[in-house]
Amino acid sequence: MEGLDYNAKGIPQEVQDITDTRPRVVIGATHSGAGKTTVTLLLMGALKRRGFDVRPFKVGPDFIDPSHHRMICGHSSHNLDSFMMSEEQIRSSFMKYTSGDSIAVIEGVMGLYDGMDGKDEKGSTAHISKILKAPVILVIDGSSLSRSAGAIALGYRAFDSGVNLRGVILNRVGSRRHEEMLRDAIEEIVPVVGVIPKKSDLIVSERHLGLKMGHEVEYDHEMLADLGSEYIDIESIIKIAGECEELEGGVIRRESVYKGCKIGVARDRAFCFYYPENIEIMRELGAEVVEFSPMEGSLPDVDGVYLGGGYPELYAEELEQNEGIREEIKRRVEEGMPLYAECGGMMYTLR
Q1: Does this model's pTM top 0.90?
Q2: 343 is a catalytic site residue
Q3: pLDDT tens digit string along 291-301?
Q4: Domains, the chain, ranges and CATH?
Q5: Where are the alpha helices (DSSP H) in 243-334?
Q6: Which of 73, 244, 272, 343 is the catalytic position?
């Protein structure tokens, strides 16, 4: 339904209904650590070189992978989570941040069918692919496999007929002979659309909560595009992404009811975990987002503060030394200023 509406908070909003076949593809995998992020970044880099407007997404509540997507694509990567979002909200978010002129690359989470539990698809990459009617490319870690890879491909294709599995990318392949064995086992079941060799320089460094953030990695965009073009059948991926079914979604446009309101958002090396859509919604509602650093500097003149997550434990000394801003936040909160703190941000507010 198109026209003026009101959300649960009574804020006026306009819902624009859209139906089209905008290009999109989901990168799933057999399990965590199979190489989804490596494949996703190589694919994004190669598509960018070809002049595509690549729009990145991430399945699930993840802050780290999207930061790498942004470094490659130049666009914020938005989260699609069927546990926290309704199917309508997922389609709305997807439609809002894509167009018929873009190509969406959606990185999955864990294994393709891994969700809330062993019986429910909610929260899984497969569920998102079905909600968005998006084709799936499955990443298989071939490092310790040969003919068994065929059984894996067959099982993933047959497990849920509602999932449109269109291709397989083989990762960590040891040799040309190894590739031939894997192809022989898989290609009569699902097309192989990429083969990535076992190379240590394709691994993004990790820390205790996962991969390093995108801004902590120096990407060679030319090399990334070179490797993506060499190891992945980009033309096949483009064709698959362009053969999607029609998707219907209502894009929500909110009224700017909070003009003149300033929200301070902590953003630095210690506080860097934010869902971009939350920040974008604040701006859409008319609020001015003012970024500041609890590690250095002072609290800006704002009407409220948002402390997100990140790595405050790694920068405890620097945060401790900036006592002035902690005292200022405390004083302003005691005077009635709203404060929203989550994850590492909540840790920062505690004794």
Answers
A1: yes
A2: yes
A3: 999 999 899 99
A4: 3-248 (3.40.50.300), 256-349 (3.40.50.880)
A5: 276-284, 316-321, 323-334
A6: 343
